[in-house]
Amino acid sequence: MSVKVDYYETLGVAKTCDDKVLKAAFRKLAMQYHPDKNPGDAVAEAKFKEIGEAYEVLKDPQKRSAYDRYGHAAFQNGGGGGGFRGDFSSSMADIFDDIFGEMMGGRGQTRRQGGNSGGRERGSDLRYNMEISLEEAYLGKTAEISVPTTIQCDVCNGSGAKAGTAPRTCPTCGGIGRVRAAQGFFSIERTCPTCQGRGEIIADPCGKCGGEGRLPEERNLSVSIPAGIEDGTRIRLAGEGEAGLRGGPAGDLYIFLSVKPHEFFQRDGADLFCKVPISMTTAALGGSFEVTTLDGAKTRVKVPEGTQFGKQFRVKGKGMPVLRSAQMGDLFIQISIETPQSLSRRQRELLQEFEEISSSENSPQSTGFFSRMKEFFEGLSD
Ligand SMILES: [Zn+2]
Ligand SMILES: [Zn+2]
User: 119 C-alpha to center of ligand 1: Å?
Assistant: First the structure.
């Protein structure tokens, strides 16, 4: 066992000192060497332990007189020391309770300056779902939205306290909202039961907000939606969320933007796709058609003679704007060919006549297809 420093020396007091002096000396040293103030410092930790042990003995008149007579031996090898350890740790709780408010008060001040305590909670973030049309995404727009939120109470300026009064620092936790309880040598933190973690007690709550420091409100905001915005975009409006609690900072408002599916255009980034069915005769003979684009203009698309199903035409610069740039995507026209239905007798005759005078040159794909397929599978079975 290591040599123990004299308990009076440890606490820096005279042998004749009274309880008041003893307690004051202990408080001063305990605060100085508290592990919270000296994180990771093993020397301070050992010192803190020594201080606790010395005070534990000297504050008890019986133990103190035993120590005065026998020194450290009084608490070793069963000389009343059997239960000492257990005693020591349980009494550490008392010691903590005793000096706690003061110590934590000191810490609370610094934390509060950081704006993160004293019950000043940051307001919640809000989510607002907004659906816009593809045309609106194309042009961009300013949307007027109404958001149910909370604002700082104008009567108490967010403090929650009645006019002319101020919230008091919670006496239990000294303002930090958390209290410590000793668990052996270590201590654990929990939410302060007196103030529920707020760090402050409002004796006279503000009549308008009931002590919350904020009031519900429907807020009208105008949100600028840039041209070219994509489906699923999240727009953050900093500080437009709920007001903080008791003067804490406001949360943010997030606008979740979705772009409604369009009747005619599918979007892929900045490009647009449009399926256009044309008649069999237009596809065969050639021709043209007109499409209206998102800017409201009309674009004529030329169909060359012999256009096949699935052919894609590109109309440059008629897609979506590229976000925050002057560039434009393209519009892709995908051709489908409609087979004529509900034929009249005359149409049927003409088509039959057309069929009779057709050659393999008119339809090279279908003519060659079946013979190639047959050859392919016969070749495999050999
Ligand atoms: Zn408290
Ligand atoms: Zn108020």
Answer: 9
* Ligand 2 centroid distance, CA of 163 (Å): 8
Q: Taking a C-beta distance cutoff of 8 angstroms, is the pair 343, 317 a contact? A: no
Of the bound ligands, which one is closest to the alpha carbon of residue 177?
1
Cα–Cα distance measured from residue 15 to residue 280, given in angstroms and rounded to the nearest whole number = 114
With a cut of 70, say whether residue 3 has pLDDT above it: no
**How confident is the model over 31-67, as pLDDT tens digits?**
888 877 777 788 888 888 888 888 888 888 888 888 8
Residues 151-208 pLDDT 10s: 888 888 888 888 888 888 888 888 888 888 776 777 778 888 888 887 888 888 899 9
In angstroms, what is the span from residue 123 Cα to ligand 2's centroid?
A: 16
- Give pLDDT, residue 75: 66
Quote the ligand 2 centre to 22 CA distance (angstroms): 46
AA identity, residue 72 = H
| 160 in Cβ contact with 209 (< 8 Å) | yes
Burial 197-217 (b: 16+ CB within 10 A, else e): bbbbbbeebbeebebbbbbee
Q: pLDDT of 326-352, one tens digit each? A: 899 999 999 999 999 999 999 999 999
Task: State whether the Cα torsion 303-309-311-317 is positive or negative.
Answer: positive
